[in-house]
Structures are given as C-alpha cells and as structure tokens.
Amino acid sequence: MADLLQALLAWDAAATAALNGVAGSPPPPAWDVCWGVVSAAGGSYLPALGVAAAAWEPTVAGALRRARGRRFAARALAGLLAVGAAAALTSWVLKPLFDRSRPGVVLPALHVSEQPAPRARSFPSGHAAAAGAAAAAIVWLQRRRRAIAAAALAAAAVVALSRVIVGVHFVLDSLAGLAVGLAAGAVVSAVLLGRLAPSAASAVAPVAARASTATAAKPPASAGAPPEPGRA
Fold it and tell me: Which pTM value belongs to this model?
C-alpha cells in the first residue's frame, strides 16, 4: 500500500511539472496573465455568476414575471448553496485532514506565477471544488440544454487545470477538488432545487389560469357599428 501511494505521488509530481511547464523555457508574461485571470475568477465570482445566469428564465411582463422572479431567487439560492457547501467542505474539513504542502514547496523548480496564502494547504483544490459545484448546479438547472451543461463542465475543468499551471496545486489536488465539487453540487442541487424551486408549470400555472379567466370574461370586440333602423 505504501509503495502504491509513493508511486501515485511520484506520478502526481511528474504530471504537475509537465503541465506547469517546468521542463521547458519560462512562459511569456501573457501566458501567466491569462491563466492567472482564469484561476482567480474560477474560485470566486465566476461560479456565482454562472449559477445566476443558469437560474435566470426570460419571461413576459406582469404577474408571470413576478412568479418567475420568485422561482429565479430559489434556483439561484440553491445553486449558490451548492458552491458554498463544496468550498466549506474542502477548506474546513479536507484540507486540514490531509495537510498537504503546496507544490512550490515540494518542487522548488516549479514555475509559480500566483503566490498562495502563507501556510495554505494544497489538497484538495478549493477553486476546483467551487467550479465543480457550480458546474453541477448549472447542469441540474439546464439539464435539458446539453450544450450549456457541457460548456459548464468544460469551464470547471479549465479552472482546475489553471490551478496546476499557475503552480499552486498538484494535478491530484485539482482532480480531487473537481470531484468533490461535482459531488457536493449534485447532492445539494438535487435536494434543494427540488424543494426550494417549484417546477415551471406549478410556478406559473395559477398566474396563467387567472390570465385566461380574465381574457375569457372580456366581451368580444364588435366588428362594426350595427345598421341604422330602416337601412337594413
């Protein structure tokens, strides 16, 4: 078992060095800037914006808009709670449990373009977990739109990769964070979205029924003025 763990850690270090680019020449500054933006955005506001965009449902004016607004708030809340649950699980439970050093400490030759916080632990990646949870929530919210679901999963994978490229996580850190985020996001979304957010039909059915009743109660418009007596 110990030999297997050592072999896994050796592979992890080699894969991290290969993806990080330590074997080649230093990357241009634009490379660091681009991946740094992806890395920073992927663990903070980008997952929240993605969940909010996926929860939004365009609708018409009036009472239907108010009904959809309440539904949007419930869907967005459930998705954001999924992201928060994944972030809390990685930062408060798993990282202290494993207490793994950052790759820059283990691999001094690694190209590190983003400095982690002092004494920050490495396993698993919190950014990858947040991105994975957001992707799971978006997949749940947009499960009928496969292109959006696939784009959300691809974006989460890119965020996980960015953490390796900027030199703050090993490959296994990012993979584990992504898996934790996807699992936590799927569970929280399945539980909360089914309870907090009613289905589209139940949310707008009463409003649509009242609109139909009001329309039926209106007298039909006259096609023209009635003929005058004696001119029929």
Answer: 0.76
